[in-house]
Design a protein that fits this description.
The complex is a heterodimer of chains A (322) and B (368). Chain A is α+β, with helices and mostly antiparallel strands. In chain A, 55% of the residues lie in helices and 9% in strands. The radius of gyration of chain A is 30 Å and the shape is elongated. The chains are: A alpha+beta (322), B alpha/beta (368). Chains A and B meet through helix 10 and helix 14 of A and helix 12 of B.
Chain lengths: 322, 368
């Protein structure tokens, strides 16, 4: 148990510039203001005092901001009496926040950073604090989260809003700022889902190495801009074309054969519901025919069409492409 | 690191011995070889393996762990689904390697930096005896180069000589010692009766420099191979993994030329070809362990066994070319593909074994 005493103190006795133990941004205050106006402050703040200085907050940063908006002059507080260390005070902040809601990824990263600031090492954090945050004692989790707070605000908002994956955030934080900026344009203008984002990132990473260029140059090239800024295309169409462009650069031989295959097959003018499919990535020497029919007449018609693909020599060309 | 004249000798920083093997001959041999190192003892090697897996790899680098093999020593090579395999047997007597090749598949299999030597060799020979005697009509090609390089630690293990001696009187088995290193001293002067194939993994010289940085260069390897030829052994060469790069034709052609300039074709048991391939999970590991390598930038796509492989036309082109160069030196040299489909065999070699059993038979006949 922490040794505290309950008091009502003046708001201006609190040093509101000191945010050493802040974990969360205050965010939208409106609901809290309504609540305080109606029922008063239900949960007192935790504060402590060093010598004759002003009180410093351990918890309740959002509550204090709301009280100020309401121009309230006095506030109920628990004054931490023990001569607690900074890490012990931070644990109070951590536990109080945990009791209210789960932490978002950016907040977990800030917590890890603050734990380091308060003298905890990697091992301590993995063993003692990751379980507290709902993780196993897994060094990989630590590595994944520890630097995320360094990302720009828009990336952190996307991460906390579950619009980008934690894996991608990890990759981004280790990338150049200019590359991150260029990649944001893609993510934002395509409204790409997490799987596509990840695929784009990995393809771009390899292409820039293969072409000895930068991500910025790649993503601001005329080819890319033509797709991203095309006013006629839908987001889905843009995404598909952009992906295709990256695949052509990353896997040129495969994509060339695939395009030739599609061109030759197109010349056969097969109707919907009838298709000749190559093995994935052309691995293996067998092909599949996808065949749909609703009547005997349609069945015969499609068999004849397939026969004509062979008669016209189209099948032979397909089989010899690779 | 890669220059002629180096000795490429591994020197252990620590030696940890599991109690159950402290009195074995191999354990004694290793301790005698490094009297200056204070040997540590543990009850259970798995505790060390677990620590080495979870802690910073640097702490455990160059640590020799002498342990008991708990499972079988002999294991049929798992091969790969839907491909023709040679039905080889692996002898798991050492796990781990010091050569640090960028493409090494062990990075995915073994997630600790220890060099583990399984020292309960009495169990190993008992198991080999039992297997070979219980199937006298079956021929076994056995190799110790799957979880390690067969000879890279041999200057202090002497295991190569032990195995050559053991197999020298076996009628239905042959041992293949597969290496990139040059520690062959222990093999010279043995009565091997051609029951051993000493094989070198080889590559284009440019790739040995960029991807096999801690290994001896091709000329040093072939110098060792020439000594082995003089000692009357069968020789093998494995172009595996072949890596596609800008000047691959000149690079690989040069290595083929160098082999045939010092090795007589009739002494070559086999030459295998295999293109770079690895499970998708290894991609990340290679990039992390070898950020400088370009091999991951190849046109590698998932194959039928889900492993990443070069696009089919690239593999066919490389194998076809190599086959013609090798056969140009000698039509009788046995060349085979490692883990490829019948289709690729046919396209590259213009023939194919009908299945894995037929390939096994072909290779067995070569050295029986």
């Amino acid at each position: 148990m922490i040794n505290t005493s309950y008091h009502i103190i003046k708001l201006d006795e609190i040093d509101d510039r000191n945010e050493m133990f802040r974990i969360k941004e205050s965010g939208d205050l409106q609901n809290l203001i309504v609540s305080i106006r109606k029922a008063g402050l239900l949960t007192p703040l935790y504060v402590y005092r060093k010598e004759n200085q002003k009180y410093r907050q351990v918890t309740g940063f959002k509550r204090l901001a709301a009280l100020k908006k309401l121009v309230i002059t006095h506030v109920p507080v628990f004054i931490v009496k023990d001569d607690l260390t900074e890490i012990e005070l931070f644990e109070i902040a951590l536990l109080e926040n945990l009791s209210v809601q789960q932490f978002r990824p950016s907040e977990i990263s800030i917590i890890i950073k603050k734990l380091h600031d308060f003298g905890q090492n990697r091992e301590d954090i993995i063993k003692k604090y990751l379980p507290l945050l709902g993780f196993g004692r897994n060094p990989k989790v630590y590595d994944l989260y520890k630097d995320l707070y360094k990302l720009e605000k828009h990336w952190l908002e996307a991460l906390d809003g579950d619009r980008i994956s934690i894996d991608l955030a990890f990759l981004l934080v280790n990338a150049d700022k200019s590359d991150r900026h260029a990649f944001w344009t893609v993510v934002d203008s395509l409204r790409a889902g997490k799987n596509n984002q990840r695929e784009f990132w990995f393809l771009c990473r390899d292409i820039i190495k293969m072409e000895n260029t930068s991500l910025k140059n790649l993503l601001e090239s005329p080819d890319t801009e033509q797709i991203l800024n095309n006013p006629v295309l839908t987001f889905a169409q843009k995404t598909e074309r952009f992906k295709n462009l990256l695949w052509e650069k990353r896997y040129p031989r495969y994509m060339k054969v695939k395009q030739e295959y599609n061109t030759v097959l197109k010349s056969a003018k097969l109707p919907p519901g009838l298709n000749i499919l190559h093995a994935p990535f052309f691995e293996g020497d067998s092909y599949n025919v996808h065949f749909e029919f609703k009547s005997e007449q349609e069945f015969i018609q499609k068999i004849q069409l397939l026969q004509s693909v062979s008669d016209k020599g189209i099948l032979k060309v397909l089989l010899e492409l690779v | 690191m890669n220059s002629p004249g180096q000795t490429w000798k591994f020197y252990p920083r620590r030696i940890i011995v599991e109690d159950t093997v402290r009195k074995t001959e191999m354990s004694r041999r290793i301790k005698d070889r490094f009297p200056e190192i204070q040997v540590e003892h543990v009850d259970d090697a798995n505790v060390i393996i677990e620590q080495a897996t979870n802690q910073d790899k640097e702490i455990w680098r160059n640590t020799l762990l002498l342990a008991r093999q708990r499972g079988p020593f002999l294991r049929l090579c798992p091969g790969t689904q839907k491909h023709i395999c040679c039905l080889y047997h692996n002898l798991d007597v050492v796990a781990g390697c010091n050569l640090d090749c960028s493409y090494c598949i062990l990075q995915g299999y073994i997630n600790n930096p220890l060099i583990t030597v399984y020292c309960n060799h009495e169990d190993m020979y008992t198991e080999l005896d039992r297997t070979l005697k219980s199937h006298p009509d079956r021929f076994y090609r056995i190799g110790s180069g799957e979880l390690s390089d067969s000879l890279t630690f041999d200057y202090f293990l002497g295991l190569g000589a032990d195995l050559v001696n053991y197999f020298s009187d076996k009628k239905n088995a042959i041992i293949e010692l597969k290496t990139k290193n040059i520690h062959i001293e222990g093999l010279l002067g043995l009565e091997h009766n051609r029951r051993a194939v000493i094989s070198w993994s080889v590559n284009a010289e440019a790739l040995t420099k960029s991807e096999e940085a801690l290994t001896p260069d091709i000329e040093s390897r072939l110098g060792a191979a020439a000594e082995i030829q003089k000692a009357g052994y069968w020789l093998g060469f494995h172009f595996d993994p072949m890596i596609y790069y800008e000047n691959w034709q000149e690079g690989y052609r040069e290595t083929v030329d160098k082999i045939f300039s010092v090795i007589k074709p009739e002494n070559i048991a086999w030459i295998s070809l295999g293109a770079l391939r690895y499970p998708p999970v290894l991609d990340k590991v290679i990039r992390e362990n070898h950020p400088e390598t370009d091999i991951v930038l190849g046109e590698l796509l998932p194959g039928r066994d889900k492993k990443l492989r070069y696009f089919k036309s690239i593999r066919i082109q490389m194998f076809e070319q190599m086959y013609s160069w090798i056969k140009g030196y000698s039509p009788d040299v046995c060349v085979y593909l490692c883990m490829e489909s019948k289709e690729i065999w046919k396209r590259a070699f213009k023939w194919s074994p009908s299945n894995s059993t037929e390939l096994k038979k072909l290779l067995d006949e070569r050295v029986k």
